[in-house]
UniProtKB/TrEMBL annotation:
GO terms for molecular function: pyrimidine-specific mismatch base pair DNA N-glycosylase activity; uracil DNA N-glycosylase activity. InterPro entries: MUG/TDG, Uracil-DNA_glycosylase-like, Uracil-DNA_glycosylase-like_sf. Transmembrane segments: none annotated. This is G/U mismatch-specific DNA glycosylase. Its EC number is 3.2.2.28. Residues 8-154 form the Uracil-DNA glycosylase-like domain. Keywords: DNA damage, DNA repair, Glycosidase, Hydrolase. GO terms for biological process: base-excision repair, AP site formation. PANTHER family: G/T AND G/U MISMATCH-SPECIFIC DNA GLYCOSYLASE (PTHR12159), G_T MISMATCH-SPECIFIC THYMINE DNA GLYCOSYLASE (PTHR12159:SF9). It is an enzyme of class 3 (hydrolase).
Amino acid sequence: MITEKLRPELLVLFIGFNPSLRSYERGFNYAGRANRFYKVLYLSGLTERLYAPEESDQLLDDYRYGFTNIVTRPTARADEITKNEYREGAKILYQKISLYRPRIACFVGKGVYLSYKGTSRQQSWGFTETPTIQNTRDFVAPSTSGLVRMRLAEQVAIYSQLAIAIQPCKGAT
């Protein structure tokens, strides 16, 4: 099933590696039992309540949060994605961001951002210095996968930077 949720005038476009097998089966983003995505959104202030994966359509309507991935093929782990899939996916992702023009492109994982940029350079968490596409800010956030060993409090602190940045934009289109 397609997990992508896109429309014009997005406030934030969350970009993952690819759908997990569970997300793909269910048709919802970040649907794995151990994935912290929706909990991190809530605890960081990006949502006013805890959403379930099944409610990802509501995030599109309630907050103008969209979802896509750099690679569309579902896998059990991101390390199953080939370099060629990343290269092709980066081109398609660039086109999607250019078309939908979200205010912020939030890369859910440093590896997602580095694959998109086609580089292995170091990248810190948060907003990047130079956006890839004019009028869309790039934000690099940690993956919320249950396979990531980062503490929940650290993830929430990074996503809180995003919540603070979008406060002035919440009512605007």
